[in-house]
From TrEMBL:
Pfam families: BPD_transp_1. Residues 45-226 form the ABC transmembrane type-1 domain. The chain crosses the membrane at residues 44-70, 91-119, 207-229. The keyword Chloroplast does not apply. Keywords: Membrane, Transmembrane, Transmembrane helix, Transport. It comes from Luteibacter yeojuensis. Its main location: membrane. One of its GO terms (cellular component) is plasma membrane. It is found in: Cell membrane. SUPFAM superfamilies: MetI-like. This is Osmoprotectant uptake system permease.
Length: 238
């Protein structure tokens, strides 16, 4: 229940904020329009969550594939290069990635999705490599002794035993994406960064507070839900 509490708070905020104009007017009496109104908070939250979900899925597919490749005998030599490329990608500020992507992909969700996917790969990659490297040698020898091929051993032995660490990487990747996605509104993407960006540009602190509350609640909700999934997988590997 504790893990679901942030989700209940998020839902409560989505219900209450559209009717909180009086509260924000009392809090910020100098503002003529203290309640964000351009797009509904529910619509922004769903769009934000969809971007994060798609970007995390891409990051999981790429990170998992690279992690598996880097831990195979034929790919061990690629591990330092793969890690270096992923780390270098993390050193670029998200704004810089957007600035490069917008001329190529245009404004909207596409450049934001690219930035989120790039930033989400490293946690998944790192935890995939760590999890697969920690699989006990005895389990691998037992699988070989039972006549498992390399792909069957990977699917039925290695990945289930490494599922806990891999899920931890997925969880971190998703949480980072929730926060990073807010900058997407600066290039036309529909995210919870819209009230924050508009509030900063228009010197409207109330908008910033509303966007920040929802982003924080969404991040905690995603963390709680993925935390439950991680615990379940650790107790009952795939």
């Amino acid at each position: 229940m504790r893990a679901l509490a942030p989700l209940l708070i998020l839902i409560a905020l989505l219900v209450a904020l559209p009717h909180a104009g009086g509260l924000f007017h009392a809090w910020f009496p100098e503002l003529s329009h203290p309640l964000y109104w351009r797009t509904s908070f529910v619509e922004l939250t769903l769009a934000h969550a969809a971007l994060v979900g798609i970007a995390t899925l891409i990051a999981v597919i790429v990170g998992l594939a690279l992690g598996i490749l880097a831990t195979r005998e034929a790919g061990r030599s690629l591990l330092p290069t793969v890690r270096a490329v992923a780390v270098i990608g993390q050193t670029f500020p998200p704004v810089a990635v957007l600035a490069i992507a917008v001329p190529l992909l245009g404004f909207g969700a596409a450049p934001t999705l690219l930035a989120l996917s790039l930033y989400g790969v490293l946690p998944v990659l790192g935890q995939t490599v760590a999890g697969l490297d920690q699989v006990p040698a005895s389990a691998l020898h037992a699988a070989d002794g039972m006549g498992y091929g390399r792909w069957r051993r990977l699917w039925e032995v290695e990945l289930p035993l490494a599922a806990g660490p891999i899920m931890a990487g997925v969880r971190l990747s998703a949480i980072v994406s929730v926060g990073t996605a807010t900058i997407g509104s600066a290039v036309g993407a529909a995210t919870l960064g819209a009230p924050i960006v508009e509030g900063l540009v228009g010197n409207n602190t109330a908008y910033v507070v509303q966007g920040a509350l929802l982003v924080g609640a969404l991040a905690l909700s995603v963390d709680g839900l993925l935390g439950l999934a991680e615990k379940r997988i650790r107790r009952h590997p795939l």
